[in-house]
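hiii, so i know i said id send this last week but things got crazy w the move. better late than never?? heres the sequnce for the chain we talked about at the cafe, plus the structure i predicted for it. fair warning i was half asleep when i ran it
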Amino acid sequence: MSNSEVTTNKNTSNTTNLSASQANLSDSSIQSIDKFIVVNNNQFILSNQGKTSMPTTLVNQVESRLTIVNKAIKDDNLIINPDTKEITRYSPYNIFAASVKGATRLRSGCYVRVFWWGVRVYFTSNAAVNWFRGKISTASGIATVASMVAQVTGHEIAGTLGDAIGMYADSMYNRLYNYNKAHRHSKIYMDINFASIYSFHTFR
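okay and structure toks below
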């Protein structure tokens, strides 16, 4: 994506080629993998083309992640949007999310969507960015954010992102501020995946 910044627990890479070295589900590999993820009977499936295009280690990791997510979808009676691959539920929170179509509202100016690979958090105001930064500055705040995401999406898997946020809370706190400052005339969002990798992007 354009206007993006990626932060990982390893070296940042812009490549989208799939290789065994990307078996940690990096931001770039997720973008490449997603085209091979299909929806069938309200479950995520890795297509046969994906299985033959990726190294065995990566196939195993993706299928392990899909097994966990698919179980949560069944247990929590969630729904996969087959067009966007977003995990949703019929939630009253959706009526407050007009600023970001299809997202659920965490608070004014802050919205979230859940996918098989992790969570996308949208910010439509500086106040929302400052609120989120304040939350991730303390352990209790991180737990609160994770709990809020799980509650409004109905997706318990999203709650485990507290661990991902906690691992890099300090750098996330600073980078979110810097990215928002550098793009003050744009709305921004942050992707956080289950491999504890996060990245920033802009949207209209």
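btw The CA atoms of residues 43 and 74 lie 8 Å apart. thought thatd interest u
miss u guys!!
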